[in-house]
Q: What sequence folds into this?
């Protein structure tokens, strides 16, 4: 069930009313209801996926109790470590079988020239959002083992924590220390919190339906025809895709956070205006915060972080980004994207001190605003360049052919733009699309420029302007929603 679907438009009000007016008599009843509607929401795609998420939840719940049980016994640390390791391996094995098995078998066969390997492939459907809820379950078990979190004995609350429907499919990847306690304490309806949630959800729908889906039309047209377009047109496609993926994914996060507030829950922030970052390290601290934080805490620090030899520190950074690339999908282009991002981040860390010294001699950096513009522009362009690998994986394209065209096939910005417009017209797409894109991206960047909470900014406006913004956003959403719904990019991970 998609957030931007007619089914969800019926599902959400019904769940909201039942949650607050029927199942509000006891905490356990509310949590049971959350589990039930979350499983309904998830099973809408394929009911068989429910068996997998239930098994993952049960194993992680049991591992927390067993770790705590053995830790209290004399000499039980070894058993606690074994239980924790066993649960980690089990979850990773499930993720590996469903997401990576066919990829590694095919890669191995191609590497060694094995022609007939189709009978070795499982060819099973990838469960929606498996990487998100698997990592959420893993973090619980690891935190219990490390003593950062007491295991819960409330199995209903735990199942609700793993399957909570607003963030189940595409995050944020919540930590048990933040979300699980919210299922263990009584919740009362807070009007201000609910209204703020509606504001944030509205903003998320605007980013997804008005901006991301229109950027997708442009990006789809360009990357589906990349072999016949100039380098300038491909650069335009890369920029369009960068806005598409940001507004699509951050839009989902805004909707998830907003809906969670309707039910009295606070989810972590997943994006912090990354396109205003001044270097690549800051960018990754602001982009998909729940995932980068997960890899930082459970992989980067486990490898030694920065408290080791410089070469090892840079290697740790690259390893973390390689893991991030693999997390996104079973495709060598995702790995290449992770490697490219890791090398950029490692180079940034390696040259941080030297760049600060050189800034004193750069005449462009003598003005604070010009320095900020230059740094933000360079960071965003660097991200767009690496993002070509990511786009190539989604569109099953050759990233090196795209890079080659970008470097050699320029015919001027005006000529490239004319080529893109002609391609849109040939595909039967309204020629006014570029105007919509420019307006939509301008609105997103203008609103997020100050780095303030969007919901707070709207709340602070005088009521005529505030309600004008509501109606304008809602009208734009309904207008573009009439052209059809599209899936969120990250729900496939």
A:
């Amino acid at each position: 069930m998609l957030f931007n679907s007619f089914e969800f438009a019926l599902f959400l009000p019904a769940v909201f009313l039942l949650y607050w007016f029927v199942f509000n008599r006891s905490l356990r009843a509310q949590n049971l209801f959350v589990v039930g509607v979350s499983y309904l929401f998830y099973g809408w795609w394929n009911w068989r996926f429910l068996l997998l998420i239930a098994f993952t939840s049960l194993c992680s719940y049991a591992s927390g109790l067993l770790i705590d049980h053995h830790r209290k016994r004399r000499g039980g640390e070894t058993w606690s470590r074994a239980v924790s390791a066993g649960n980690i391996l089990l979850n990773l094995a499930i993720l590996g079988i469903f997401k990576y098995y066919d990829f590694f078998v095919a890669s191995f066969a191609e590497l060694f020239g094995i022609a007939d390997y189709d009978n070795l492939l499982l060819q099973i459907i990838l469960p929606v959002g498996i990487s998100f809820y698997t990592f959420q379950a893993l973090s619980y078990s690891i935190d219990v083992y490390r003593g950062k979190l007491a295991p819960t004995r409330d199995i209903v609350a735990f199942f609700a924590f793993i399957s909570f429907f607003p963030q189940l499919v595409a995050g944020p990847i919540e930590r048990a220390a933040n979300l699980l306690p919210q299922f263990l304490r009584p919740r009362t309806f807070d009007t201000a919190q609910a209204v703020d949630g509606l504001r944030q959800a509205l903003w998320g729908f605007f980013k997804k339906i008005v901006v991301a889906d229109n950027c997708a039309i442009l990006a789809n047209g360009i990357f589906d025809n990349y072999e016949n377009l100039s380098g300038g047109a491909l650069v335009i496609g890369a920029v369009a895709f960068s806005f598409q993926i940001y507004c699509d994914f951050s839009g989902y996060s805004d909707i998830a956070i907003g809906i969670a507030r309707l039910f009295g829950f606070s989810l972590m922030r997943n994006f912090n205006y990354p396109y205003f970052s001044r270097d690549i390290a800051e960018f990754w601290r602001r982009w998909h915060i729940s995932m980068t934080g997960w890899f930082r805490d459970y992989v980067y620090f486990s490898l030694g972080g920065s408290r080791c030899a410089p070469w090892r520190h840079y290697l740790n950074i690259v390893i973390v980004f390689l893991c991030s690339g693999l997390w996104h999908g079973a495709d060598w282009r995702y790995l290449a994207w992770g490697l490219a991002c890791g090398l950029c981040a490692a180079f940034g860390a390696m040259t941080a001190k030297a760049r600060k010294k050189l800034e004193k001699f750069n005449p462009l950096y003598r003005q604070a605003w010009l320095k900020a513009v230059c740094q933000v522009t360079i960071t965003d362009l660097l991200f767009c360049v690496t993002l070509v690998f990511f786009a190539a994986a989604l569109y099953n394209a050759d990233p090196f052919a795209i890079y080659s065209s970008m470097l050699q096939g320029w015919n001027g910005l005006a000529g490239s733009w004319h080529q893109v417009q002609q391609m849109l017209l040939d595909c039967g797409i309204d020629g006014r699309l570029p105007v919509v894109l420019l307006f939509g991206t301008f609105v997103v960047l203008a609103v997020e420029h100050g780095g303030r909470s969007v919901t707070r900014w709207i709340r602070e406006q005088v009521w005529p302007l505030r309600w004008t913004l509501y109606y304008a956003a809602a009208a734009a959403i309904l207008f573009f929603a009439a052209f059809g719904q599209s899936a969120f990019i990250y729900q496939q991970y």
The chain has 21 helices and no strands. The chain has a mean pLDDT of 85.
